[in-house]
Amino acid sequence: MNRSARVMRWGLLVVWLAGCGTLPAPEGLDPYWIRPGVKRPASEAVSLLHYYDYLHGLPAADQEVEKALQRQAWIEDRSDFRRIQYAVALSGPTASAAERRQAFELLEPLARNAEDPDSELHLLAEVLFRAEDSERGRMAAIERLERERGATKGLERRLDATKGIERRLEAMKNLERRLDELERKLAAMQELERKLAAMQELERKLEAMKEIERSLLQRDRGETPGTKP
């Protein structure tokens, strides 16, 4: 059962228990919210329940117009009826958090007033007040849940970022290992080049020693050094 249905159900029950129809019809009011063909309520509380039903059937744009109308009516007439009607307009389906808070504050004095506990309007105000209080609790719970979800998503994003950093670090470590391996191979090649150069140097020296040896042999034989045999 949605909030509108709950309020209507409990409101009607409260008004019935309080003696619905025992008060005269409000004077000077144009109950435009009463559906055509429906008898004009003889009770302010019942009229307000009709208004609640009327408001919740309006398009969003018309609800905003209704808020402005009831605000002006409340400024001009500070009666309990107008107080509740303005609170109902403020707490409709298009209400913002600030408007719900204002409706709650409007209803609270009547709901907590112990001077006339049997008044239909006070009983209706209490029902609406409790419904609004319950709705505020539900919205607060939803907001907490959304914050927790946001915090969880934030933690997930940080965890993903941490995992990304770990992956990058591991990639860097792999790169460092490859660089170390390449450096070892380069060092090995350089060592090989040094050994090859040393061997070539030895070969040149050996060739030079052979050349000296040939020259000495030729001289011993009386040959001109440097001539081939």
Provide structural commentary.
75% of the residues lie in helices and 0% in strands. It is an all-alpha fold and 229 residues long. The protein is rod-shaped and about 155 Å long. The chain starts with a helix and ends in a 9-residue tail after the last helix.
Largest sheet: none
Give the overall form: rod-shaped
Q: How much helix, percentage-wise, in residues?
A: over 70%
Euclidean distance between termini CA atoms: 125 Å
As a percent range, the share of strand residues is under 5%
Oligomer: single chain
Class by SSE composition: mainly alpha
Enumerate how many helices there are, as a single number.
6
Task: Quote the average pLDDT.
Answer: 81
* Low-pLDDT residue spans: 3-8, 12-26
Counting DSSP E segments of at least 2 residues, the number of strands comes to: 0
- SSE run: HHHHHH
Radius of gyration: 49 Å
Write the layout of secondary structure elements.
Layout: H1 3-18, H2 44-55, H3 60-76, H4 80-90, H5 97-111, H6 120-220
